């Protein structure tokens, strides 16, 4: 048998039953396939990515009956739910197969004719147990207490004549093929599972259903009282589509075959046993690879309609957005293992990984580039990027690709986020706001910002297969001319590629959420406008707007506590001191308050579900960028006060020094929300 190795990367998802609306498990396989397809395209490989719907069979027919519709009308009505979900999730499939399409029906008839001609089909009678939901036959040995060994629902006794496919003929061949291709099923545990399964003799596969029992399926031309078994019909989609694409079926298939199949662990046997055998009977090589991923559970339980715990991916995308959902699906767990869904975990990923780590990085860096180099932009230094950036890029970015290709999506994103963390540390350590104070260090400042902008461009390149919309936004604010669709690792993967950055200040990339998943109010605001110009500031001598609008609290012109001046204050009891609730807080975001010289608006995490907004009069002493990540001390139970139209929910402690204010911080690392005594 010829082992065709085409230059094409042909990738498939299962075709989903349209007996019900899509759920998060469907979204999982399809998003993973999409990331693989996009990665390969960025590698310059021609990709053919196929998904679709499985529209025949008893389950679909029964759902249609329940809705009082013909099966075709019923599937036509459910179909848009799937198509709509894939467009909301930015799925870039190249074709969409429906098993009711004439091209597929024609292909299945062709297969039936070929198998019959080869003598691989025979008519036989069958008596045994039948599981309706799984549409599978079981023997007496398999069934315990009248229940299906797979789904544990009641089975029915059935006796009928059917058409069988001689699977058993090919068992030895399949075992020896897998022995010499142990990498053909991933993860390894699934390969072992199939090898174990193949130790027992295979029964022949019943490929027909009498029309009297299941009237909804592809007719069998030489057996008018039967339709094809839905699984037999469904698996064939992987070749009926390529058959329909070429000048001749053979030409179409030889261009693409063999495929990589992504599936859930529930449908491993059909794909890793029935399917390669069917292919062998058709004298075609087995799939290139089958990867079976784990299941999404909810609070540790299987998702099912009867439990009422099915997570609706459309509702998730509507609420949280395309990219956050894509990110969560692939970052949260290992692809081959089961993963548990919770809204809390999703919100954490959005707030921490996306909004804090990535979103803040982009807005800090673009704001500084605009503020410090409004006229000239940030040019590549003669010596290119720093050795530090090069080293981080070379060690952390190629693994993103490698891990994606080996289906370790969560580790791929982990590597990419290590690079994001490197860039965040680079901002803190190189402190551009300090360099900006010294006119002699302009060159150094420009080089630091160039490194950061290049770093962000590379983040976008490696992020693009996972979060295409976000990568597009990053490139847009960096004003990188190459559009998203042209991205290629070879052409754009080297640090130091761009000659000049004239960036736009980026608005928030992601909306932060409170514990209930509602957008946090502060995120709804307009992106900050940088650079600030002198003329936008209130002119000296005039009463500044903040004085006019400050709350009456005498010791707190803004929310920074200053030491009372003059004679020592009278002693207080410990009980009085205890009334003041002090907490450590980590500054997540800092932006100037518009039209104010003094005030900064901070978002401070004090260990509560949502960060607090604190308005602090420290703009004269701190640049906003310098504050992000700092641990400060917050008076957490101060009554809220509105300053320049922004409500402050706390106050920072600071020392007044000759050179302005100096924020109190902690001597040793402490997370947000530590008590202070
Ligand atoms: N129609 C068949 C597949 C035929 S392929 C030739 C089928 N369809 S299905 O609608 O039931 O979808 C099955 C696929 O959905 C699984 O293989 C998996 O990809 C995905 N998932 C369904 N439930 C899932 C979870 N709870 N978790 C993760 N994915 C699961 O079977």
Q: What would your notes on this structure say?
A:
The protein is α/β, with parallel strands linked by helices. The protein has 3 domains: 9-293, HUPs (Rossmann fold), CATH 3.40.50; 348-501, Isoleucyl-tRNA Synthetase, Domain 1, CATH 1.10.730.10; 545-663, Nucleic acid-binding proteins (OB fold (Dihydrolipoamide Acetyltransferase, E2P)). Helix content is 39%, strand content 19%. It has 23 helices and 27 strands. The strands form 7 sheets. Strands 19, 20, 21, 22, 23, 26 and 27 form a 7-stranded mixed beta sheet that branches. Strand 4 and strand 5 (136-138) form a beta hairpin. Helix 4 (102-118) crosses helix 8, helix 13 (343-372) packs parallel to helix 16 (409-430) and helix 18 (442-463) packs antiparallel against helix 19. The chain is elongated and about 100 Å long.
Which labels suit this protein?
3 domains, 7-stranded mixed β-sheet, Rossmann fold, OB fold (Dihydrolipoamide Acetyltransferase, E2P), Isoleucyl-tRNA Synthetase, Domain 1, alpha/beta, single chain, binds 5'-O-[(L-methionyl)-sulphamoyl]adenosine, about 675 residues
Secondary-structure topology with pairs:
Layout: E1 9-17, H1 24-42, E2 47-54, H2 58-66, H3 71-88, E3 95-98, H4 102-118, E4 121-131, E5 136-138, E6 156-165, H5 171-180, E7 185-186, H6 188-197, E8 205-206, E9 208-210, E10 219-220, E11 223-228, H7 230-235, H8 237-245, H9 249-256, E12 260-264, H10 268-281, E13 289-293, E14 296-298, E15 301-302, H11 313-320, H12 322-331, E16 339-341, H13 343-372, E17 378-379, H14 387-396, H15 398-405, H16 409-430, H17 432-435, H18 442-463, H19 468-478, H20 489-492, E18 500-501, H21 545-549, E19 560-561, H22 574-578, E20 582-592, E21 600-605, E22 612-616, H23 624-627, E23 631-635, E24 641-643, E25 646-648, E26 651-657, E27 660-663
Parallel strand pairs: 1-2, 1-12, 2-3, 7-13, 12-13, 14-16, 19-26
Antiparallel strand pairs: 4-5, 4-6, 6-8, 9-11, 10-11, 14-15, 17-18, 20-21, 20-23, 21-22, 23-26, 24-25, 26-27
The structure holds 5'-O-[(L-methionyl)-sulphamoyl]adenosine.
The site of 5'-O-[(L-methionyl)-sulphamoyl]adenosine has 18 residues, from strand 1, helix 1, helix 7 and strand 12.
């Amino acid at each position: 048998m010829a082992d065709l190795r085409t230059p094409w990367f042909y990738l498939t998802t299962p075709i989903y039953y349209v007996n019900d609306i899509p759920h998060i498990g469907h979204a999982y396989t399809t998003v993973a396939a999409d990331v693989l397809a996009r990665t390969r395209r960025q590698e310059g490989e021609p990709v053919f990515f196929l998904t679709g719907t499985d529209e025949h069979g008893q389950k679909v027919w029964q759902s249609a009956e329940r809705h009082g519709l013909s099966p075709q009308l019923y599937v036509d009505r459910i179909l848009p739910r799937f198509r709509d979900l894939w467009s909301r999730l930015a799925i870039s499939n190249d074709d969409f197969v429906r098993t009711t399409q004439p091209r597929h029906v024609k292909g299945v008839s062709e297969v039936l004719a070929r198998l019959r001609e080869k003598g691989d089909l025979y008519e036989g009678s069958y008596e045994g147990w039948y599981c309706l939901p799984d549409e599978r036959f079981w023997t007496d040995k398999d069934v315990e207490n009248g229940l299906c060994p797979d789904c544990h629902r009641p089975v029915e006794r059935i006796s009928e004549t059917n058409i069988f496919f001689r699977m058993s003929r090919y068992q030895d061949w399949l075992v020896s093929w897998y022995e010499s291709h142990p990498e053909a099923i991933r993860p390894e545990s699934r390969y072992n599972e199939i090898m174990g399964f193949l130790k027992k003799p295979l029964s022949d596969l019943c490929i027909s259903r009498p029309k009297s029992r299941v009237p909804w399926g592809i007719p069998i031309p030489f057996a008018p009282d039967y339709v094809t078994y839905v699984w037999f019909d469904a698996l064939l989609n992987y070749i009926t589509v390529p058959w329909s694409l070429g000048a001749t079926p053979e030409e179409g298939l030889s261009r693409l075959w063999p495929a990589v199949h992504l599936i859930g662990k529930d449908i491993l046997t059909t794909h890793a046993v029935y399917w390669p055998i069917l292919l062998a009977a058709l004298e075609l090589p087995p799939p290139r690879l089958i990867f079976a991923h784990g299941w999404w559970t909810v609070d540790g339980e299987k998702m099912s309609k009867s439990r009422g715990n099915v997570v609706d991916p459309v509702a998730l995308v509507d609420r949280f957005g395309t990219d956050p959902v894509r990110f969560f699906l692939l970052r949260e767990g290992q692809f081959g293992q089961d993963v548990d869904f919770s809204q809390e975990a999703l919100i954490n990923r959005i707030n921490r990984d996306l909004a804090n780590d990535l979103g803040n990085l982009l807005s800090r860096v673009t704001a500084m580039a605009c503020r410090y180099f409004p006229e000239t932009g940030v040019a590549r230094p003669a010596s290119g990027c720093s050795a530090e950036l090069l080293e981080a890029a070379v060690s952390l970015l190629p693994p993103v690709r490698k891990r994606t290709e080996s289906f370790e999506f969560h580790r791929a994103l982990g590597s990419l986020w290590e690079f994001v963390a490197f860039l965040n540390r680079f901002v803190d350590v190189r402190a551009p706001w300090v360099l900006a104070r010294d006119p002699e260090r302009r060159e150094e400042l420009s080089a630091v910002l160039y490194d950061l902008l290049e770093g962000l461009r590379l983040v976008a390149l490696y992020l693009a297969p996972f979060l295409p919309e976000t990568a597009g936004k990053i490139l847009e604010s960096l004003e990188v001319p190459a559009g998203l669709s042209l991205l290629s690792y070879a052409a754009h993967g080297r640090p130091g590629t761009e000659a000049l950055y004239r960036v736009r200040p980026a608005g928030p990339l992601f909306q932060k959420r409170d514990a209930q998943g509602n957008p946090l109010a502060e995120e709804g605001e307009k992106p900050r406008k940088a650079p600030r110009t002198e003329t936008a500031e209130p002119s000296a001598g005039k009463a500044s707007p903040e004085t006019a609008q400050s709350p009456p609290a005498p010791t707190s012109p803004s929310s920074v506590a200053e030491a009372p001046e003059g004679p020592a204050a009278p002693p207080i009891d410990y009980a009085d001191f205890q009334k003041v609730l002090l907490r450590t807080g980590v500054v997540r975001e800092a932006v100037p308050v518009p039209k104010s010289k003094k005030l900064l608006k901070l978002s401070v995490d004090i260990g509560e579900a949502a960060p607090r907004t604190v308005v602090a009069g420290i703009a004269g002493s701190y640049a906003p960028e310098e504050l992000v990540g700092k641990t400060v001390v917050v008076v957490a139970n101060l009554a809220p006060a509105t300053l320049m139209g922004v409500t402050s929910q706390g106050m920072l402690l600071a020392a007044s020094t000759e050179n302005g204010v100096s924020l109190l911080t902690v001597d040793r690392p402490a997370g947000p929300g530590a008590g202070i005594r």
